[in-house]
Give the backbone structure.
Amino acid sequence: MDTIHLKAYAKINLALDVLRRRPDGYHDVRMIMQTVKLHDRLVISKCKTPGIFLKSNLDFLPTNENNLVYAAAKLFFEQHPQNCGVSIQLDKRIPVSAGMAGGSTDAAAALFGLNRMFCTGLSLSELQALGVKLGADVPYCLLRGTALSEGIGEILTPLPPAPACHILLVKPPVNVSTKYVYEHLSLDENTVHPDIDGMIRAIEAGSLTDTAALLSNVLEAVTRKEYPAIAAIEDTMREFGALNALMSGSGPTVFGIFDSRAKAEKAFYHFKSGSCGRQTFLTGLFQPQNTAPIEVEEEAD
Ligand code: ATP
């Protein structure tokens, strides 16, 4: 196989709890992760010249080691040297710095694609062990679906698929630094922690209403104060009939859960015509249908 086409899906956090700050600076988290259908595309092709040649549709993204796709390929070739190089075309649709693990999912897709292309035979857990060196969310992005994520994000327990629904994603035009959010999070006796176990029960029972009612993200304590746009988007989504709405990850993207396509579309066109414009997406939950961790869209010889 000389070329492989891959879809790299975004994630949302149905619930995000931070348990403690660890001495190494990382945080112990407990999160319910969910893949959504919004995705980037990667096309990886073998080339005779050794090296990694990355191109992206976004001019402002780095195409060197600072891009997680490049970093993933570099790591892969360090561990599994080959006598040729690769060119990689990355087409981004997932908003950047949005709390949707865009870079991590691209890295996961690159690792998966290279493993397949060079027939290196790494198992899912071996790919995850490589991936965690690139970022705490990469192992989840290789697994995908509905999952409980613990530790720094690398301890994963697959859950039954969350109930199907329509997801509206809106990224407000503000820049939120993940580092800033975690540094300004104060965990004390007043912290309202998400009911993660309650949400797991709601998912197991297949109840969309109960799952939506339990949406909660401890990081919102920081971002709601600093960025009123986030709370305003959530309120508007609820006014348009969302069962509930929440900020994903460290933000600033907000997702709304709808049980009606018509209501979700109405809200979508409202945000699309406003200042959020092109950073608005109507999508759904993605559940992998087979054990292959990344969907291969097309393989060409
Ligand atoms: P997370 O949800 O894991 O916190 P995020 O969605 O908030 O991630 P990303 O979109 O992954 O954030 O990107 C954050 C930073 O990583 C940006 O500054 C960007 O320049 C850099 N980056 C490196 N590689 C990529 C990539 N392939 N796609 C997007 N951003 C990338």
Summary: The CA atoms of residues 272 and 278 lie 7 Å apart. The radius of gyration is 19 Å.
